[in-house]
Design a protein that fits this description.
The complex is a heterodimer of chains A (414) and B (254). Chain A is an alpha+beta fold. Helix content of chain A is 21%, strand content 29%. In chain A, the strands form 7 sheets. In chain A, strands 1, 2, 23, 24 and 25 form a 5-stranded antiparallel β-sheet that branches. In chain A, strand 21 and strand 22 form a beta hairpin. In chain A, helix 2 runs antiparallel to helix 3. The radius of gyration of chain A is 29 Å and the shape is elongated. Chain B contains 8 helices and no strands. In chain B, helix 7 runs antiparallel to helix 8. The radius of gyration of chain B is 18 Å and the shape is flat. The chains are: A alpha+beta (414), B mainly alpha (254).
Chain lengths: 414, 254
Amino acid sequence: MGADRAAEIFNSSFAGVCWCILGFMFLFVAAGNLIRRKLFIAAVHLGCAAIIIGGLLGSERVCGWRGLAPARAWTELREGQTAKLGDIVMKLRNIRVEYYPVAHSMLAWKIYLETCSDKGEVRLTPVRNVDNLPVAMKGFVIPGRKIMCEKFDWILPDSFTLPQLIWPNNAGWEYEPLVKNRQIDIVSNMFTHLSATIEKFYDNLRFDINSNEQIMAIDSDDGRVNRAVSLVDANGRKHYVFSPGETVRLNVFGQDGRMLMYLPVGVNRGGRASPFAVILRLRRDGTVMTGVTAAVENDRQVRFSLLPLYETEQQWISDGRAGLLFRLEQPEKQVFAECVFDDEKFVRIGINRPAGYGGYDFTISDYDIDGMSVKIFARRNCGIFWVWSGFVLLGAGVTGWCVLKLLNRRRAAA
Amino acid sequence: MNLGYFMATYMFICLAAVFAVVSLICLAAKSSRASSALWAASVVLMVDVVCRAFIENGLPLRDMFDVFLILAALYIPAGDLCRKLTGQTTIFADAIVQLLLLCPLAFAFSPEAKPIAPILRSNLFAPHVLCYMLAYVLLFKAAVISSKVLRGIAAAEAVDKIVVLAMPFMTAGLLLGAVWGKRAWGDWWNWDPKELWSLACWCVYFAYLHFRIAMPAKQKTAIVISLAGFACVILTLVWVNLSGSFVGLHNYAG
């Protein structure tokens, strides 16, 4: 309220003239105090003058620049998008998020569902306790198309990994977001082929997905085998390999072998456990088609359910038990935007960790992890030297003057 | 959240409030006992701050609960320093201010220990906030003594001393905030409501000091300026964060 108006007023031409006059007045007062050898007072006024000079030099009227073209404002960028900054072209290649370690109360829970449906309400009881997790399962209900937890305080799924779904070729499929707060859409399986690809976007970290053996992720840069986890589906087949700690791409193929979509999935966000759940719901021609879950627990090979929940809308498969591993969202610790410029110069911009290129400073001013977007702010400030000098003079002057004043009063009192 | 942690925090707050009330009761009999009770309240709150610091793995300065907790913990030691500096004893008012600072802790803000937001993970965060906290407790005290000056039972010089003591902290807070703003948001000045009101506080208190130097005889006018400065402090500290009218970069602090 009022801040934007204040900015408008103080950035106007008239205010610019006023700032100049004020700067001269500060200089005048500082000169007078210097002559009278009141050094601290002179420093305070010189500091104010320097800050005003720096502010004027850094303004867009002189040689400063704020924003990021073409919006000339804080520009929101998603992965793969490009922004222009004068002659500079910047592409956001990746967003990396560091999370706080998982607290004990936030450990993932693995939940075995006995059955589920997207038609009507089906009670899921009882749910089997998983060996090494202190979970006392209470049961679930599915109102409509959603599985809802009866005991929110027990499972606490504030949110799960909500991957951004990317469709290279949607082939007529419609996507509905599935993983929402405390809500899971129905899962089912119509996929014949499900695969995962690790793609570290810059290192070409990839691996095959069709082998029957456990596949290890091999970093193409150093040939080292990273930690990898294979997932076993309901038929005992291994399908997935992930390298914990990386953002991986989960590729989903349709029956015709074409890739339907891929999902960037964060793995091992907390450091201690590396579980995630991916739950999809697809529609085509009025048919609810497909859901997928995947579960990774710590570094061990774990159960995975490629869920054959039903074949048609009305027919249920009795052994279609889903193993869902809920991973609670951990608060983010740091967000990095990895960008490249047109000359292939790579910069990593973090919160509180600005990066410089071409005379500009780039900072992340806001971010949206679920939407995988960041707002990047570019600033060129020619007056920053004056501002820092002003800060030093002002800080030293105020401190010196106040200390001197207090000491003088003590002396006078004594 | 952890129930034990929650209960312990409220126990500390209640204990501090009891000590503040005890000091009010003791005031009629013996002022030294009242002062001791206030110190006890402050020590209890400091213990709470230390406990929170251990649990949260860093200085607890991340939301309004922490801010008020530290203000309440610092108020009595800062007040005692001011008493030594000015010779003004204000135990009754101190106890009331202490209780007022405890009220939002008990009724308005949640003591839940949240993980620190990425934007606050900076070396400049703790010094920036601590400088402001120190300046604000001193200015709280200055406002208390200002009321005595208006009633004619104290001289404006007492307020001068406290404001002079507070100004370096306020200036340091402002400048550290600008340096941090450059790193975090890309610019040292971002036209954020909290920034604007902080600058307004700084300007009003400097106006007060200029006025005192230029017209030392007009004490009451000067005191009105200092109280206006204190109103700006309240606006900056509470209203800008909590009213919802000011949408800005400091919103996480609410």
